[in-house]
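Progress against Task 2.4 (sequence-to-structure conversion) is shown through the following example record, which the project officer requested during the mid-term review.
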Amino acid sequence: MKTKIFFIVIILMVNLYPQVREIKSLSFLKKGDFEFNIGTNIGLGIPKKNTTISNLSYDDSLYHKSSYSSDNRLFNLILTASVAYCIIDGLEFEPEFDLNLLTDYDISVTILGNILYNFVIPGKRVIPFLKAGYGLSNLFSPNSEYNYGPNTEKSDNSFNTKVFNAGIGLKYFYSSETAIRLEINYSNHSGSYVFSYDYSYQTGTRNTEIVMNSFSICLGFLILL
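Structure tokens generated for the chain above:
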């Protein structure tokens, strides 16, 4: 009986050895690697808007100035695509393109430059990472809010919104070249614009400053090239 158990143990060890050796030989995110990512972010945006209105009334020739603020909650759906390059083992530079689909705002795009550090553990398929980045967006524009009147000055939809981006997440490599990427993300959008108008009864400007903090969860798929 002992002899049979001994031979069974030997057979199991022989069968497991190639698998253990394969796991130990796995090497991810080495210097010179390229990584292509696509994903979807779902989350909540919290914008705060401060507006100052200055106008001249034609009826009484009086100059008026007022200000107000508002905030609300927005549902965020963001489609992302990026290509990362490993500068050194574990450290990546990642240009990112986002298509923003937010309630109460027009469709917009964001272009980011991210730095990622991957905590690569030899032989492990799960890799934690940290991310931080900065970029520009055309998210905040008067087009979607003030698009009426005969003499309105509409925005050129330029990239005048500044974006700070940060995240923490995991990459799970289920093969040597493909992985699932899960990330918790924070972003800060800040911008301002001036909207001018000229109606039959008054003329003036609206100066608006907006800051939006967003929190989201991203699920994506990556390929090592």
